[in-house]
Amino acid sequence: MKQSLGILAAILVSALTACGAPPPNETPEPLGEESSALVSCSTECPSGPSLSCWGNACSAANNAYVQCDGVYQYCATTPPPLDCSYSQEACLSVLGTSCSPPGSRRKCCIQNEPIGNCQCTTRNVWTCTVPHEDP
């Protein structure tokens, strides 16, 4: 009986080895794996839109810059002058369009003058007010 159990064990080991299982007392080698994940950094800028970037490594300083993989983006120090010759700068064109982040502000044009003011609402749309002149 012991001899038939030994033969049965030998057949079983041979069958498992033929099916791709590692032989007893031998562990499979781990497969070489490499993984990387992109990270994102962003910052709010006081005088313009927020900045963001994606990369393998990043850093950010509020109201100053973002950096991804050694490439820096800096916040504008002063807002660019408003060019009222473009129709998209008119308060009526800005009103109701999407914006980010909520609470940010911008100027808009009324009759070719940059005298309107807009604020980004919590619903991420611009709402604009215009100065009122008494007749």
Automatic annotation (TrEMBL):
The keyword Signal applies. Residues 1-20 form the signal peptide. Keywords: Signal. This is Lipoprotein.
